[in-house]
Each structure stands twice: as C-alpha cells, then as structure tokens.
Amino acid sequence: MKQVTASMAGTVWNIAVSEGDQVTAGQSVVVLESMKMEIPIEAETAGKVEEIKVAVGDFVNEGDVLVTLA
C-alpha cells in the first residue's frame, strides 16, 4: 500500500479524487491551503485510490497521511 502524505501543515481545501479512482504519478489528489496559498499534493506513484483519510476543512500536519493507494 502506498501513501500520499502532506508536504506541509495546512487545511484541506479540495479533494480531487474519489475512492476507486485510478491516479497517475504526478496527479494532484488533494489541495491544501496554507498562508492563503493553494498547494497541490501529488501522488508520487500510480495506483488506485483505496482510502481518503481526510475531509475538506480538516487541518493536517506535515507527514499526515491524506490518501492511500493500492
């Protein structure tokens, strides 16, 4: 199982995928808002979205798991 983690602390502004979606390496899966900037978080590898671990409005810290890929 692969994990997509937050690269910085921020608030989940948008979730660009749904469970069951196929994603490619480099595809944006979650957008974080930090200091009035939108930061896209991209999948490092291709895979199928197994679980979305956050919701819009959640605050996350650097390293928190956002999405798991199978």
From TrEMBL:
CDD domains per record: biotinyl_domain
Domain called Lipoyl-binding: residue spans: 1-70
Keyword Mitochondrion recorded: no
Domain of life: Bacteria
Keywords, sorted A to Z: Biotin
Any matching Pfam family: Biotin_lipoyl
Chain coiled-coil ranges: none
Signal peptide: none
SUPFAM superfamilies registered for this protein in UniProt: Single hybrid motif (SSF51230)
PANTHER family attached to this UniProt entry: OXALOACETATE DECARBOXYLASE ALPHA CHAIN (PTHR45266:SF3)
Name under which the protein is recorded: Acetyl-CoA carboxylase biotin carboxyl carrier protein
